[in-house]
Amino acid sequence: MRIGVPREIKNHEHRVAMMPTGVGLLVGDGHTLTVQAGAGEDSGFSDRDYEQAGACIASSAKACWDCDLVVKVKEPLPEEYTFLRPNLILFTFLHLAAAPELARILMDKHVCALAYETVQLDDGSLPVLAAMSQVAGRMAAQLAVRFLQKENGTRFAGKGRLAGGVSGVDPAQAMVLGAGNVGQNAALALAGLGANVVMLEAVQSRVDALQASLGGHISVIHFSAENLHRFLPDCDILIGAALVPGKHAPGLLRRVDLRLMQAGGVFVDVSIDQGGISETSHPTTYDDPVYVEEGIIHCCLPNLPGAVPLTSTTALTHASFPYIRLIANHGVDAAVRLNPTLSHGVNIRDGNVVHQGVAESLSTQGA
Fold first, then answer.
1. Which of 23, 181, 199, 209 has the fewest CB atoms within 10 Å, i.e. the most exposed one?
2. What is the pTM of this model?
3. Which tens digits make up the pLDDT trace of 341-359?
4. Is 273 a catalytic residue?
């Protein structure tokens, strides 16, 4: 199979979809690998590294897209739509519930589109997404603490509170909505800095399990409007971390809810790649990462892990490579039969949306 690895073009996206070690394994399996020049540079991998692993280095993105299987990190952007074509197998993060236009184009072009974020085990866990969720949760905490500081400019000045406080001064109060991988990692990072953290989670079994395993500065309670409103007035840092696989993120926050927070508080919506949990949320970029609504600093970066590629590329490719190799060696149909986990990853096939959660979310948007 001919496999292409184009360079990512999303704003400040520094990850790459495959490391040289993966290239070497696929070349050993008999496949042809084409990697775009500079694709791995920000993740610490030179073109020479890929050449030594057996890849062909292409100066243009087109050469990488003119392959049987294209593996990426982030969804195709409009500049890349021209490369989409029938029978192309595309494996990347797609988040189609929040991208109806892209979904329509993938259907119109009859692309076989697989999404990392919906590859799902029998127990409901998401093995590829989990790797990035850990990074995103910790990045969310880092950014929240940064934007809570006062020196981010007059327009985006936070409260000026230190996360952990000091002797005689209370620490910051943080609330995390959702107790999955993102939420737990954000909570642990914030608690590690000394903040008091409350996690709100809708699944009672998860609440019970986390109450038994987490302690110190973290408390876990059941999500309800009453509990949300009880904690918002004292909340300095709010993290959105709710997820329903394949579907649009649940709408947990209204504009009126944010008015309960004090001005200068920070809201990091990690769920923005699935549409966001608040009616005030819209995607931002690393060039312009924050905006203010209702006095609250919003940070809604859809590619949080892209800022730490030395960590996130390794974590992502370790999780995704076994599935990539399975597809390369056997094709999509046989790969799905050999490993049903991968069947959930297939979002679009033969011009149709075949993932139930994605289909339900797109239908509500008229897509």
1. 209
2. 0.94
3. 999 999 999 999 999 999 9
4. yes
